[in-house]
Amino acid sequence: QVQLVESGGGLVQAGGSLRLSCAASGRTFSSYDMGWFRQAPGKEREFVGVIRISNSYTYYVDSVKGRFTISRDNAKNAVYLQMNSLKPEDTAVYYCAADDVLGWSFKTKPTEYRYWGQGTQVTVSS
To answer: What does the alpha-carbon distance between residue 87 and residue 80 come to, in Å, rounded to a whole number?
Structure first.
């Protein structure tokens, strides 16, 4: 079993930055894909990016490439989402998710992840 806890959300003006944290506990941390998703009101949960813990390879949705960066600290069992140049359309509840690595492909669908955090609200004002 894996427990995930997000933190770091808040209110920021457009163009600003936030860093979200996802602290993991439970099973071995080094063998997972750790994904970030977001969900705006009335919309489906959307893939944001993922990091493969074993090698730090990352993959992002096009809309955040160049603005968002995922990193990890294995010693702290934590994953981070650094968000720069934020836009009002980035407003959503952000979730981190984890699951075992299966094959070469990154997991980009919510249904591919078994473990989820509770979410943290990010609001970007114009």
So the answer is: 19
